[in-house]
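Cross-posted from the bioinformatics board.
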Amino acid sequence: MNKLLNKSLKSFTIYALIVLATSVPAYYFLVDSIWLRELDEHNEIVADRTEKELNNLNLAETELNQSITLWNKIQPGTNLEKTTLDKNRKDSTYTVLRKNPYVAHDDIDRFRGLSRVIKIYRENYLLTVETNVEETEETAIAIAILTFLFFLILVVGFLILNRRLSVKLWQPFRNTLTELKTFNLNSQSNISFEKSNILEFEELNVALNKLIEHTVSVYKSQKEFTENASHELQTPLAIIKNKLDILLQKEALTDRQYQIIEDINKALTRVSRINKNLLLLAKIENHQFDDSETINVSELTEECLEQLQEHFSNKELSVHTSIEKDCVVTGNRVLIEVLINNLLLNSIRHNSQKGIVEVKLNQTGLFISNSGIITLEKEHLFKRFKKTSEESSGSGLGLAIVEQICKRHQWTIDYKFQQEKHTFKISF
Amino acid sequence: MKILIIEDENELADSISEYLSEENYLCEFARTYNQALEKIESFHYDCILLDIMLPDGNGMNILEELKRQDKQDGVIIISAKNALDDKIKGLQIGADDYLTKPFHLSELAARIYSIIRRKQFRNTNIIQQNELQIDLLGKTVKFKNHPIELTKKEFNLLLYFIGNNNRIISKSTLAEHLSGDFADMLDNHDFVYAHIKNLKKKLNEVGCKNYLKTVYGTGYKWEG
């Protein structure tokens, strides 16, 4: 994953590199041509002056020859000799590379030369003037080094700016992100984004606000519906239950009729249980439970086991417990009791006759296992009304409630199937 | 015994009254908050059944009113809300018990029975049922001064039956009564039978007459 600004920084850097790299030859050619033009000019001045001064001397032939020899000796880089070339021959300029005999180092130097035919007392002489000029590679290297330095300055500047910008520019974005991360549909808190003066971020915030408001209202009405529906159902359920109780008192029921009433009763109990569980879920999600009590889970677990003792023995289950003394958690007593009971009841219901139940508790968590044949589908396990086994009598909400209670207490719940045992692990 | 049923649902009020009338309870009705206030000001009741969700007021205020008037009527709150804080608040204000809809009439009857007995025999808390003596506070049972050792659940069942004298109680209702919320999660209601069997045996051992009858194969009836 890359940061957005780093992406643009990369492109900027590459672009800067290309521009600066192409500027190196451009500068080189520019500097070199200025050099050469200046030197040509200089050489011409030298040639003009030489011609003029020598003619002004009015020397005799022998003297002149001596002078020229002397000249040639002491004037480095120039040479004057008689020539048969025509005076009107065009000047030639050239560049040579050779060793400079007058310097100590062995390097090859570059010279810019001018050869011109001059006239001294009607005699034609060929004058060559050579001036040392900076070597191509030296110029190029100097320019490249300088350019690279500038490039470095640019990149360092980019990095510093980038860091500052990413902190400053993206601050509103980060604020929004923090808000979003902490936002939870279940918690009744509304989200509010800080105002930003950056158009794009403000647009984002507005759009998010709209989305969230809509989601929250849909969620709320959904939840209210569940709650209200469950509430409203309680009374008619009570009426049916009571009418059945009365029907049962009527004289001379047949066994079959009694059985039918009994079956209706059982179904009714299930309906009211589903209803109660839906209400419970809604209430957990509405944070209608105080969760700041300090609870001795060890004692609570023992109590729950005690209550279900007869049901364990009814199914001839062997219960192995290893419960550490005085494990304490912070939470809601009622909810934690519901959680333990739901898991224990599952371990009874989904167990074989004479099966095994294991309950382990320590300060880190609670493990409840029971004998089983095949693994349950993990992804549907904690969903509402998802039946993961052949059992039909459950409300289909037990594990959903367990999961919600874990969430409420910030515990994690995990399911494993190994060695023919279903294990639910709750980590405090 | 006079009972006031404060309940806006007619069907519910009627069923309750029908069930209780057979046990010599006299039921009166209040359908609204204001009616309820009038009734409690003018009369004394042995037990008041109070639905706290009334169309024109909160039943909790009726409870406070009773307390203000220093009335000794026993009160059972009936609520569609299974809210724990409601329950605690109600009991704090002075309700004697709290029932969540939907409930069985036998459950209600047993609780009314206990409350009225507790109120009536505030000094002794002893219920005399034929030759049986039941101490509500000490949770002990004697038969002609012979103590009978009962488990918590057996004692609970005995009270339940006596509170529903001559009523038929089905096995599933008993299962619900004994295991509260778990009943429907346990497909097997045999544990009810086990408790009943033990209770019967213990009563028979001391020579108590067989008041507990089995009807329709899995239903039960206390004929005291």
